[in-house]
Design brief:
The protein is built from 7 helices and 6 strands, in the order H-E-H-H-E-H-E-H-E-H-E-E-H. With about 170 residues, it is α/β, with parallel strands linked by helices. Strands 3-2-1-4-5-6 form a 6-stranded parallel β-sheet, with helices on both faces.
Length: about 170
């Protein structure tokens, strides 16, 4: 094989690798986004992630009951609602770790505003996964931001989304 042919083949392989869409696992603390039962916020956070790849897992966790109509709407948006008692962050961490260890995703996205997810995000990065933190820009705790390869402020997405509608 000539050197030029080899370089062309190598160039195509690199292009293919770079253009590969990510497989994404998305985990949401429901209390953060659905304060007003506004499902538009779920759509706003999935939009930027879909630009990065394919959302393979999207789960929203609640520590309280939600009415059936809201649950149906959540499912229609593409999320699996999960109701549980106890600490939501522990359940999200376990689910995220399973995806990481089973190598089912390339990227972990977590919608949260507390530092309890730092060990999961750190582990994901150690395992070669990209991390996305979607949080509130007004949050007083900024420690999650240091463990995000990509940082998104969902309250700013609301502003952008409302401007697009105008």
């Amino acid at each position: 094989m000539k050197c030029g042919d080899y370089l062309k083949k190598f160039g195509r392989a690199v292009k293919k690798k770079l253009s590969k869409k990510k497989k994404i696992g998305l985990f949401v603390e429901g209390r953060l986004l659905l304060k007003d039962r506004n499902l538009e916020e779920l759509r706003l956070i999935t939009g930027p992630l879909e630009e990065l790849g394919s959302i393979r897992v999207s789960k929203i966790f609640f520590d309280h009951a939600i009415d059936e109509r809201v649950m149906d709407e959540i499912v229609n948006v593409g999320f699996s609602p999960i109701m549980l008692s106890g600490d939501i962050d522990v359940h999200i961490a376990i689910e995220a770790l399973e995806l990481i260890l089973e190598d089912k995703v390339d990227m972990i996205a977590i919608v949260a505003n507390n530092p309890n997810y730092i060990p999961v995000l750190n582990f994901a990065r150690e395992e070669g996964k990209e991390t996305v933190v979607i949080t509130d820009s007004k949050s007083t705790d900024t420690s999650l931001e240091n463990f995000a390869d990509i940082l998104v402020y969902y309250d700013l997405l609301k502003v952008i989304g409302s401007k697009k509608k105008e």
